[in-house]
Amino acid sequence: MDTDIGALVQRGLLPAVQQALDAVRVIGNNAVHPGQLDLTDDPQSAATLFLLINLIAEQLITAPKQAQAIYDSLPEGARNAISRRDAPRGG
Predict the structure, then answer these.
(1) Please, which pLDDT band fits residue 2 given cuts at 50, 70 and 90?
(2) For the chain, domain boundaries
(3) What is the model's pTM?
(4) What is the rounded radius of gyration, in angstroms, for the C-alpha atoms of the chain?
(5) Residue 43 has pLDDT above 90, yes or no
(6) CB atoms closer than 10 angstroms to residue 29
(7) pLDDT score of 29
(8) Tally of CB atoms within 10 A around 21
(9) Which of 7, 56, 65, 71 is the most buried (most CB within 10 A)?
(10) SS3 for 5-56, per residue?
């Protein structure tokens, strides 16, 4: 998972998401051991993990979909003008 997070960072992952992913990875690695089940974890650890997972989902799934929906609702002429502005220029 560490290598996968590193690859996402190289592709431009937001620092806040990288930190959340690494926190989930480290907390998870420290909490889970093969063949062992630890029932003594405190509720705060579970709440923290849920908070981090929600942050990751918000940034990677929810926010982009909301932004796309708003962009798609712009008038077609405005979207076309934006596309022309962002098109590669020859020369």
Answers:
(1) very high
(2) 2-33+44-86
(3) 0.75
(4) 20
(5) no
(6) 11
(7) 83
(8) 22
(9) 56
(10) HHHHHHCCCCHHHHHHHHHHHHHHHHHCECCECCCCCCHHHHHHHHHHHHHH
φ/ψ (deg, to 5) at 6? -60, -40
Rounded Cα–Cα distance for residues 21 and 54 (Å): 11
Residue 38 in this model has a pLDDT that exceeds 80: no
Closest CA to 60 of 26, 21, 30: 21
In the numeric block, which tokens belong to residue 7? 């690859």
pLDDT reported for residue 72:
98
Q: How confident is the model at residue 91 (pLDDT cuts 50, 70, 90)?
A: low
| Two tokens, residue 78 | 């405005």
45, 31 Cβ separation under 8 angstroms: yes
Q: Report the sign of the C-alpha dihedral through residues 62, 63, 67, 68, in that order.
A: negative
